[in-house]
Amino acid sequence: MQVCRTVTDCRKRVSAYRQSGETVGLVPTMGFLHAGHMELVAAAKSRADRVVVTIFVNPTQFGDASDLDAYPRDEARDLAMLREAGVDLVLIPEVIEVYPNGDETIVETTRMANMLHGEVRPGHFRGVTTVVARLFNFVQPDFACFGEKDYQQLQVIKRMTQDLAFPIEIVGVPIVREADGLAMSSRNVRLSDEDRKAALVLSSALDTAEALTSPTVENLREAIASAIHSEPRATLRGLDIVAAETLDNISGPLTAPAAIMLSAEFGGVLLLDQRVITP
Length: 279
Ligand code: AMP
What we know:
By secondary structure, this protein is an alpha/beta fold.
């Protein structure tokens, strides 16, 4: 496995793959890898000759400097996991490599970035699309894998890729969960024991909603909100039920696939979960 710290080095190696006629899949991450990330790696490996993983904690997508500082990191462990999984190349750039002249040039999906989770995290999706566009240009893969856990992010990236005509396929990968149902996240290690137990309310609220026999946007919302409010350690941050692809507002009985995007805070740690319900 090759480890590159510079864009120039990464490009040189990827172009060698290309010259041999090999296809390239990209998995962008912020490191501190877990089984969820490894599922993206497995999806990429099953589709491409070569898999490139990036590890970059992107400062432009964090609103809060303390959240950025608290983001967990363990490069040695990440590299061991990626080597074990048979990854070909890992790009671990410093901030100066990715933003050599700052972030004068940004990429933003104007509507989709500022709705829903974007409304409570201003600038977050603009940071994500800005860095992903740069990573796409650095690596120029045939496809890139993203988790459905970050549902709005996946839709925003699909839209950016389409609008800017990147010749890159976006592959969505289903959520990987802990045995008890909690969606895997690098942030889970920051939960206290009590909050770790309380956080199960996210997946159980979605299970309850999914079990409704005649789902409407209103009764889904009611079922989820009351489940979250029944857990005193949880503070509901976002609950959006929207058209699965466009993220448009919907109401009344479900007539097409709807995405439920849920976020809540547990002792200062923001966790996400989501479910697509098909009527
Ligand atoms: P992150 O390192 O948190 O930026 O995540 C990198 C990629 O892994 C993103 O595309 C995430 O959606 C994806 N991911 C994170 N957690 C999971 C999970 N539990 N299941 C599937 N994909 C995930």
